[in-house]
Design a protein that fits this description.
Blueprint: E1 7-11, H1 17-26, E2 30-34, H2 38-46, E3 50-51, H3 55-59, E4 64-67, H4 72-79, H5 85-88, E5 94-97, H6 103-114, E6 119-122, E7 125-126, H7 128-134, E8 137-142, H8 145-156, E9 159-166, H9 170-198, H10 203-211, H11 218-229, H12 238-255, H13 260-277, H14 285-292
């Protein structure tokens, strides 16, 4: 064989999917993609990939099928049905779903795929758009060890921290915990920003020194400039974080875990969305605090 690397089909070329698929192309993989936006398919082709006209066409000859779509309903829409992945991928293929969805959806998908001879990993990611572009994502995986071992080289072209967390659905459970921590962290930073500004302190100086101590975090490092410049161009949209807070509060209820602070932040995210800010970056939680504090928006 001239190229020993597995042939990859990539479904979903959004804010995350486009740069991730491009990192696989840079690593020498043959990538055939399908997505709903024509310009994203053109972008893939311009980067050396192949644009497919349908899911069926994209997955037909693939060894590995990777999906990166917004939520459970989209995963179900592309996986099931006559035009979906399970009906059209070849037996023995490996399906890696990198979307952030409910753990139960991942468990159900793995079960349905097994009947078709298709192996599945749930492999949601953390690191946002910047992490996707820089190939430094944290990838949390659920599934079988053998499938994880086979997928590792692919994951290594996309991220830096790659961990098998347990059986099917475990990756999604860890991702839900990730989204809980991130939302609470952004909320705390947003409250601090409004407090500092109303106190007349130099915000940049304050955030620099805070980030050097115990209050420092990846969230503050990545979002500091968003807060200072009120730049809420989406790296990760409030709409998606709203979906994720629903996943974590629901999953926690199912296992009997109390999330009192998480529940409060879930409501703040929901309120921001209700006020029309769903398309903004999740650092726009700052706007909700400003509204509550009577600050100008």
């Amino acid at each position: 064989m001239s190229n020993a690397l597995p042939k990859i089909a990539w479904i979903g070329l959004g804010i995350m999917g486009s740069p991730m698929s491009e990192n696989l192309l840079k690593a020498g993989y043959d990538v055939t993609g399908f997505t709903l936006e024509r310009e994203k398919l053109d972008r893939l082709a311009a980067s050396g990939g192949t644009a497919a006209g349908s899911i069926a066409e994209a997955v037909r000859d693939a060894d590995v099928v990777i999906t990166m779509v917004p939520a459970s309903p989209q995963v179900e829409a592309i996986a099931y049905g006559p035009d979906g992945i399970l009906e059209n991928a070849r037996s023995g293929a490996l399906l890696i779903d990198m979307s952030s969805i409910t753990p139960q959806t991942s468990v159900d998908l793995a079960k349905a795929a097994k009947d078709k001879g298709i192996r599945v990993l749930d492999a949601p990611v953390s690191g946002g758009e910047a992490g996707a572009i820089e190939a430094v994502l944290s990838i949390m995986v659920g599934g079988e060890q053998a499938d994880f071992d086979q997928a590792r080289p692919v994951f290594e072209a996309l991220g830096k921290t790659i961990v098998l967390c347990g059986p099917h659905g475990s990756g999604q459970t860890v991702k839900a915990a990730n989204q809980l921590i991130v939302a609470v962290n952004i909320q705390a930073c947003a409250e601090a920003v409004v407090f500092l500004e109303k106190s007349g302190v130099d915000l940049k100086a304050a955030l620099d020194v805070l980030n050097g101590g115990l209050a420092g975090s990846t969230v503050l490092t990545r979002k500091k400039d968003n807060f200072i410049g009120r730049d809420f161009k989406p790296g990760f949209r409030i709409d998606l974080h709203h979906k994720d807070m629903g996943i974590v509060t629901d999953a926690a209820r199912n296992v009997g875990a109390a999330l009192p602070v998480g529940a409060a932040v879930a409501q703040l995210v929901a309120s921001l969305r209700a006020q029309g800010d769903g398309g903004l970056d999740h650092s726009a939680l700052l706007r909700a605090v400003e509204r509550l504090s009577g600050a100008r928006i």
